[in-house]
Amino acid sequence: MTALARSREIVSEFRANVSDWLDAPRATTGSSFGALCVTALGAVSLWPMGFEIRDATDADLAEILEIEKLAFTTPWTLRSFQRELSLPFSRLAVAMSADGDSKPALAGFLCRWLVADECHILNVAVRPSFRRQGVGGLLMNNAILEARARRAAFVTLEVRRSNLAARQLYRKLHFEERRLRRHYYGPGEDAIVMELRLDGEAHPHRL
Ligand SMILES: CC(C)(COP(=O)(O)OP(=O)(O)OC[C@H]1O[C@@H](n2cnc3c(N)ncnc32)[C@H](O)[C@@H]1OP(=O)(O)O)[C@@H](O)C(=O)NCCC(=O)NCCS
Q1: First and final CA of the chain: distance in angstroms?
Q2: Is the CB of 73 under 6 A from ligand 1?
Q3: Per-residue pLDDT tens for 145-156?
């Protein structure tokens, strides 16, 4: 068994064992590598083992584009991603699998804008072979923690009404469905505007 496979097995057992006591706020117990992360408001997140987040560079764009094309029917272009890298208020982050045995693989990415007191998530996608391993949650949690650290009041995003996987992920992070934008993605493809308030937050987020 590779180190990555073993780390996934461990985190899966760990998730099962700690699910009951995760609700209780407690002191910080670790870093972003397969540890419990406790935010300033006492929220607890289980960060998947074997992944790390860093800022994307030009060298990542080919892989990002590949994931984008696998994830969406109308994908962003290379130019769109290049533009995001050049905008001062935009951040393109990537989740890298950190298997000690082999070259790190780009598992997913997230693009956000931070303007005034709002963090807006424009794009998030995970490579199909890495899905349901906590990578989407890790990318989102990272963006939320950064937004909170930079004193943003809320995090917003739009999601296709038909995208039940993404809606479930955002609900789990305590985003609320605020408005419907009819035919936003084309005829019959509505968007739901979702929002997570960070000021006076009633529900600390957790995954
Ligand atoms: C949505 C997406 C980013 C989720 O990434 P992921 O790494 O698989 O998500 P996670 O493993 O962190 O999942 C966290 C939670 O989200 C929910 N979730 C994720 N995928 C789900 C699915 N297919 N069905 C139902 N719930 C799902 C679950 O509650 C899950 O927790 P669980 O695994 O303990 O049940 C991924 O499916 C993806 O890239 N989709 C295509 C692109 C896309 O739709 N992006 C969002 C645009 S708004």
Answers
A1: 27
A2: no
A3: 999 999 999 999
Alpha-carbon distances of 160 from 85, 99, 141, 167, rounded to whole Å: 25, 33, 20, 8
Tokens standing for residue 194: 């979702």
Q: Is the CB of 121 under 6 A from ligand 1?
A: no
Structure tokens at 3: 């180190």
Residue whose C-alpha is closest to residue 56's, from 81, 89, 92? 92
Question: Number of C-alpha atoms within 13 angstroms, CB side, residue 163?
Answer: 20
What distance in Å separates the CA atoms of residue 207 and residue 205, rounded to the nearest whole number?
Answer: 7
Catalytic residues: 158, 170
Number of the ligand 1 atom closest to the C-alpha atom of 123: 47
The confidence score (pLDDT) of residue 199 equals 84
Q: Name all domains of the chain by residue range, CATH numbers in brackets.
A: 3-197 (3.40.630.30)
Residues contacting residue 3 through CB under 8 Å, at least 6 positions apart: 50, 99, 100, 101
The residue that leads in pLDDT, 28 or 114, is: 114
Against a cut of 0.70, is the pTM above it?
yes
